Amino acid sequence: QIFEAVVAQTGAAAPADLAGLHAVVTAGPTREPLDPVRFLTNRSSGKQGYAVAEALAARGARVTLISGPTQLATPRGVTRIDVESAEQMLGLSLAAAAEAQIFVGAAAVADYRASEVAGEKIKKTGESLTLVLSKNPDILATVRAAQPGLFMVGFAAETEKLAEHARGKLSNKKLNLIAANWVGNGKAFDTEDNALQLYWPEGEQEIPAASKAEVARQLVDRIVSLYQAR
Amino acid sequence: QIFEAVVAQTGAAAPADLAGLHAVVTAGPTREPLDPVRFLTNRSSGKQGYAVAEALAARGARVTLISGPTQLATPRGVTRIDVESAEQMLGLSLAAAAEAQIFVGAAAVADYRASEVAGEKIKKTGESLTLVLSKNPDILATVRAAQPGLFMVGFAAETEKLAEHARGKLSNKKLNLIAANWVGNGKAFDTEDNALQLYWPEGEQEIPAASKAEVARQLVDRIVSLYQAR
Question: In chain B, where does DSSP find H-type helix?
């Protein structure tokens, strides 16, 4: 039993049931520049996405991690590609997804970017400033349109109506699985622990609060069982 | 000569000519929330401000560092207070400045904040989103108005017309010294090296490209000589 606990913690003896498969994981925030120094972003640390990449690699998958700016080390056995903006992340996601079987969109992609990016630093002149933002491309929906057969997992970070918003995204984006969590007020973003509520077309599962590494292992267990049951 | 070089590098034998003085340094970016997860910020790493705090402490000053979010360790001998927004930084700066002799505003304070901060995560609905921003309080100008006798040093990060913009800020904010640098395109922000152009009412000085620690030592040399000549 002690041996099993150690194995569960290190993941050393995880079954290599994803061997031969290529998984793509997006993680971290994106940065949407307003000018050469200012940008819009969000509180994502990237920790949960990096933990998912590591857990997929531990199960034998070849893993490509497409990462926004984070302070994290690249997990063992994972190939990492760094990006800044949502548009950059979309381009690399489309390219990587074309030769992948599993895609996990864990990045907290900025929903909007500045409609015009100033070439010089915006001077502080008026008492108020109106910023016009344009909707960013939806990475999951765009990848799904290009790859109808890909097994796709999304994340939904919500501050209200968790189940309703998550089930809506699962269906609108034609995902195979969605992992929802509460954010804001010190929850999930930039913290060590996390808790997830998983939804898929035929079921749901609660992953109770635990380290992001442990949460990632349980999420990957569910990914493996749904992927194998297709 | 070798001994002198080592001493200059470690700062171990720097003269304690600021002993008995209290210096306040602001550093890092500020974060201006749009909702519980999104915020506006900038590319400041805080490294130059932290290096200035450390160099002031090495000269014997008691140093309070008021810091926006950074990934940096607190310099030896420095008391650090963490803040997020410009408004929080202003409140703590005013309080600390009331009992200080030297104030160095090295933070890259966000010029604007959202006029209204949403209590829940803004849903991605329209194709475009208009954000109305309000000018943030000017920390240096507000501290100067409250403390006319304080020795005040500002920073000016510019992408064009460096001397003109820096001299304008020196005079408008009634500073004793301003340190200007070029930013954008990989310069100064989030880098290891820096170069500064110093301006004060009666003179100017170039600090050529060097490590931020070395640049901080030369800046503090100038602060000490101008402070003592008052």
Answer: 2-10, 47-58, 86-97, 139-146, 162-172, 212-228
Element (H, E) at A58: helix A47-58
Q: How far is CA A32 from CA A67, A94, A109, B186, in A?
A: 14, 19, 10, 16
Contact A110, A40 (CB under 8 A): yes
Q: Which residue has the higher pLDDT, B126 or A151?
A: A151
Higher pLDDT, B124 or B161: B161
Active site residue ranges of A: 42
Task: Summarize pLDDT for A64-78 with one digit per residue, the tens.
Answer: 999 999 999 999 999
Q: Rounded distance, CA B145 to CA B160, Å?
A: 28
pLDDT value of residue B37:
86
Compute how many other C-beta atoms are within 10 angstroms of the C-beta atom of residue A7. Answer: 12
**A121–chain B nearest CA distance, Å:** 6
What's the start-to-end Cα distance of chain B, in Å? 32
pLDDT digits 0-9 by tens, B187-196: 666 678 899 9
DSSP letter for A228, please: H
CATH code for A15-110+131-228?
3.40.50.10300
Contact: A131, B133; criterion CB under 8 Å? yes
Length of chain A: 230
To the nearest whole number, what is the mean pLDDT of chain B? 91
> Hunting for tokens 């070439």 — which residue is that?
A119
B43 touches chain A (CB under 8 A): yes
What is this model's ipTM? 0.83
Which one from B42, B176, B181, B194 is the annotated catalytic residue? B42
Q: What is the pLDDT of residues A6-62, one digit of tens each?
A: 445 554 567 899 999 999 999 999 999 998 889 999 999 999 999 999 999 999 999
Angle formed at CA B86 by CA B80 and CA B88, multiple of 5 degrees: 55
Burial of B129 (0-12, 13-18, 19+ CB in 10 A): middle
**B17/chain A closest Cα distance in angstroms:** 36
More confident position, B36 or B62: B62
The yes/no answer on whether domain B2-228 falls in CATH 3.20.20.30 is no
Q: Do A189 and B41 touch (CB under 8 A)?
A: no
From chain A, the residues in CB contact with B41 under 8 A are 38-39, 41
Interchain CB contact of B135 with A (< 8 Å):
yes
Residue B11 is classified by DSSP as -
Task: Name A214's Cβ contacts closer than 8 Å, sequence gap at least 6.
Answer: none
Please state, in angstroms and rounded to a whole number, the distance separating the CA atoms of residues A70 and A81.
Answer: 12
Query: Which pLDDT value is given to residue A192?
Result: 81
